[in-house]
Structure formats: C-alpha cells, structure tokens
C-alpha cells in the first residue's frame, strides 16, 4: 500500500542488526517461532494459539509487500482494504 498511497515513501523501522526474536522470546520464558515460508504461516499461528503460554510468532515481510488487511490513513473500519482472495488465502 505504501507504493500506492504514499508514493513509495515507507513507514517503519530499519534495524541496524535484526534481533533474533525467537531467542528474545525465550529469554522472557515464552515460546518463539519464525515463519520461514508461506506454507508455515498457518502451522506457526496454530501452534502459538494452542499454547497455554504467551507465544511470539515472527513473520518477516519485505517492506515492498502489501500487507492485508490495511486501513488507509484517516479512514474508518468500513474503508478497510482486504486484498484479493489469493492474498488472503493463507488465513
């Protein structure tokens, strides 16, 4: 959406070094998982939701990717952009 709505101006954080979020979660005594492929998204989310303790699920996403659902700035819930059925199929 940044390419469409913001003329390719991206909002976010650029880490100098990317933290190991799984190890960080473990340091706090919770489970951590990294989704390494599209096929593992559902599996990792299910594992985290089935757990009786807090879980961290890291989902690395390129800053060039459109992430759905997306609510445009200054808009309400009724204006949420959901993407195509293919983009939402993972859920």
Number of strands: 2
Going across the major beta sheet, what is the strand order?
Answer: 1-2
In terms of quaternary structure, the protein is: single chain
Based on helices, strands and strand pairing, what is the structural class? alpha+beta
Overall average residue pLDDT: 81
Task: Give a structural overview.
With 91 residues, the chain is α+β, with helices and mostly antiparallel strands. It has one domain. 27% of the residues lie in helices and 9% in strands. It is built from four helices and two strands. The chain has helices at residues 2-5, 21-27, 41-50, 85-88, and strands at 31-34, 55-58. The chain has a two-stranded parallel ribbon. β1 (31-34), α3 (41-50) and β2 form a beta-alpha-beta unit. The protein is globular. The mean pLDDT is 81.
Describe the structure concisely.
The protein has helices at residues 2-5, 21-27, 41-50, 85-88; strands at residues 31-34, 55-58. It has 91 residues and is of the alpha+beta class.
Topology at a glance:
Blueprint: H1 2-5, H2 21-27, E1 31-34, H3 41-50, E2 55-58, H4 85-88
Parallel strand pairs: 1-2
List key phrases describing it.
91 residues; alpha+beta; two-stranded parallel sheet; 4 helices; 9% strand; globular
């Amino acid at each position: 959406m940044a390419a469409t709505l913001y003329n390719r101006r991206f909002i976010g954080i650029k880490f100098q070094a990317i933290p190991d979020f799984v190890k960080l979660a473990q340091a706090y005594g919770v489970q951590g998982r990294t989704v390494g492929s599209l096929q593992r998204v559902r599996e990792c989310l299910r594992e985290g939701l089935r757990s009786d303790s807090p879980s961290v699920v890291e989902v690395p996403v390129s800053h060039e990717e459109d992430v759905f659902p997306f609510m445009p700035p200054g808009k309400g819930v009724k204006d949420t952009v959901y993407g195509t059925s293919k983009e939402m199929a993972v859920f």
